[in-house]
Design goal:
By secondary structure, this protein is α+β, with helices and mostly antiparallel strands. The chain has one domain. It is built from 3 helices and 10 strands. Strands 4, 5, 7, 8, 9 and 10 form a 6-stranded antiparallel beta sheet that branches. It has a two-stranded antiparallel sheet with strand order 1-2. The protein has a two-stranded antiparallel sheet with strand order 3-6.
Length: 177
């Protein structure tokens, strides 16, 4: 009788360990997915020189004299690219933006637009480093959602772009303030 009780105890301990390990693995995989999404959003912001709603290209002649060509109203710009990327990667976790501090105000990103809302798929703010040099800070959200238990924690994942000289998004940020 004593051996059967000991065997049940070890079986329960092994089952508990397997469940804890499975939960840890599920959280780690989901966290890495959100981290990858954050890295891609930061890359898009850097590639498009900020949060833009238009496509900017350069037209150069044979003597390497380049002029800037801006196309408004076409499907492009970082806002549209970020929105499409979030949809394609099935990222749908919303969270509350951090409160305003000495660095500035946070703006929520929903449906391809930055707004003054408190809740969004991601939150962003523009930080002035020097005259005409800016960086952007973004926050994405991660829910630790476990089977049978549900949502237990919501984490914020922060990212910041490198410095961007003369960003193309002045009109968008001016409309928010």
């Amino acid at each position: 009788m004593r051996e059967s009780i000991g065997g049940a105890w070890i079986y329960g301990l092994a089952l508990t360990f397997v469940l804890l390990f499975s939960c840890f693995l599920a959280i780690a995989i989901n966290y890495s997915k959100v981290f990858r999404v954050k890295n891609e959003v930061v890359s898009i912001i850097e590639n498009y020189s900020g949060f833009t709603d238009k496509v900017t290209t350069y037209s150069c002649d044979d003597d390497n004299n380049c002029t800037r060509v801006t196309k408004s109203g076409v499907a492009g710009g970082s806002l549209n690219i970020i929105n499409n990327y979030l949809k394609a990667s099935n990222y749908a976790t919303k969270g509350r933006c951090p409160s305003q501090d000495e660095k500035g105000k946070w703006y929520a990103f929903n449906d391809g637009q930055l707004s003054d809302s408190n809740e969004g798929l991601l939150c962003a703010r523009k930080l002035e480093q020097k005259s005409n040099v800016y960086s952007y800070e973004v926050v994405l959200f991660f829910n630790a959602n476990l089977p049978l238990i549900g949502d237990i924690f919501k984490f914020k994942i922060n990212g910041e772009t490198n410095d961007i000289f003369y960003p193309d998004d002045t009109a968008i940020w001016a409309s928010l303030n």
